Amino acid sequence: MSRPESGGLRAGDVLARRYLLMEPIGRGGMSVIWRTFDQSLQRMVAVKILDGDFGADRELIRREARATARLIHPDAIEVYDYGETVTAQGRLAAYVVMRLLEGRPLSDRLAEGPLPWAEAVTVAGKLATVLAAAHERGIVHRDVTAENVMLTADGAKLLDFGIAAFIGEEGDDRASEYGTPPYVAPERLTGTAADPAGDVYALGVLLFEMLTGGTPYPERTWEEIEQARRDRPPPEPHVPGLPPEVAALCRRCLSHEPRLRPDARQVAAILTAAPTAGRSSPPRRAAAVTVAAVAVLTAGALTWAQLTGVFDPRPGTGLAIGTPSVPVPVTVEPSVSTLVTAEPSPSGARSPGPRTDADPADPADPVGPTDPVGPTASVGEPDDEPADEVADSPAKKTATPMLMVEATHPSSPALALGPSVRRFNALLARGENTGAIRPDVALDLRQVLSNSVCCGRDLSQVRGKIADRHREGAITDAFREALNDQLVVVALAMAR
């Protein structure tokens, strides 16, 4: 049994007869965020639940939900729902339901060192546009920190409006109670009314940190930082190649006087207009794939075929491998692919199956054409093949999954990443259809793989989730092997 988290909640608990808590994915000073399955809309979401002694102060999370819902911006977190419910343990829980973002906290990235200056300028520019939009709607974030920025495949996203206030709202003691010392503007410690200039100061700190790897005042306590500000003027980042206007802007944002700071719209304009020489998409990390991986891949496909009893005797020109009882050729050809059997659709037409070389369509793409995969395209969205459509098809209910894996010929071009990801998603859909994987787990794997591919990360997180869900009984033994095999295919494509 999983150990209790926020408010005694555990994985498997359901909030408001709708939100199935799966695993905690983040923890702040006041709350715990859960990866959650929305059973009504059949999608993955993030649910933030007040923790510990703050559970009684439900106004905090209600204010966050209202402030965030008031701000509609592609680079800010989206709020779907807010509610209060009594948990199975008899405790009152206030929660807010948000879009689930797959990515990496900026704080984790900064732990590895500073960002290239062009990347830092891009991130800060996006955050400045979000803050400008918030300020124009009368909202002050008041907690702009590296922990509250998520790096996703679509760029940086600003999170956590938990201590947001409306412009002009009277100050309180929450700056020293909840704020992060290096990011809190000097005037906030005196209890001044909420002002956008405080967010600009925090953004200046964050820009300085992304450029140099450290905060402008490295002191840790409130008292030390206040003393450092009195003793030293705001520093300017010194980074080779950094445009001087960006360095000057950073120093202006860090001014001790709020009136001397630019507003967020001016910050966004300057950063957006900064020279873009040297900017590029983050390099895709190549996966370490060896010849042994191809051997494991082929062996796993045979295991799946033996367990399901479905084989594809398609003739080929390469090496054929069979089993003692049934001749099962596994063809070695110039591609790496996972093929699915053709089967009738609800309308009676047959869906695409294995093609021959005479087919006019791309023979390496049995799943069919979809949107391209890359940093600007979404990979494996949950509506590729909704679970309810799968369940409504009698033909699909009785169909048996079949895999055929082909090794890559050294003289042939490597498989494109897009088709390998689509085949992984097609395999998940077939597993849902046959009961080999729970639908909410399949949806989660689609999203995690999409994020890993778009961000160029290795697939260890996907493998780890497959192992965890298998141990929980949400994935069958045979299907776990099939998923791991197809991950090797994706890894081969990522290693191009």
From TrEMBL:
<keyword id="KW-0067">ATP-binding</keyword>
<dbReference type="InterPro" id="IPR017441">
    <property type="entry name" value="Protein_kinase_ATP_BS"/>
</dbReference>
<feature type="compositionally biased region" description="Low complexity">
    <location>
        <begin position="364"/>
        <end position="377"/>
    </location>
</feature>
<feature type="region of interest" description="Disordered">
    <location>
        <begin position="339"/>
        <end position="395"/>
    </location>
</feature>
<dbReference type="InterPro" id="IPR011009">
    <property type="entry name" value="Kinase-like_dom_sf"/>
</dbReference>
<dbReference type="InterPro" id="IPR008266">
    <property type="entry name" value="Tyr_kinase_AS"/>
</dbReference>
<keyword id="KW-0547">Nucleotide-binding</keyword>
<dbReference type="Pfam" id="PF00069">
    <property type="entry name" value="Pkinase"/>
</dbReference>
<feature type="compositionally biased region" description="Low complexity">
    <location>
        <begin position="339"/>
        <end position="355"/>
    </location>
</feature>
<keyword id="KW-0723">Serine/threonine-protein kinase</keyword>
<dbReference type="GO" id="GO:0005524">
    <property type="term" value="F:ATP binding"/>
</dbReference>
<keyword id="KW-0808">Transferase</keyword>
<dbReference type="GO" id="GO:0004674">
    <property type="term" value="F:protein serine/threonine kinase activity"/>
</dbReference>
<feature type="domain" description="Protein kinase">
    <location>
        <begin position="19"/>
        <end position="277"/>
    </location>
</feature>
<protein>
    <recommendedName>
        <fullName>non-specific serine/threonine protein kinase</fullName>
        <ecNumber>2.7.11.1</ecNumber>
    </recommendedName>
</protein>
<keyword id="KW-0418">Kinase</keyword>
<feature type="compositionally biased region" description="Acidic residues">
    <location>
        <begin position="381"/>
        <end position="391"/>
    </location>
</feature>
<feature type="binding site">
    <location>
        <position position="48"/>
    </location>
    <ligand>
        <name>ATP</name>
    </ligand>
</feature>
<dbReference type="InterPro" id="IPR000719">
    <property type="entry name" value="Prot_kinase_dom"/>
</dbReference>
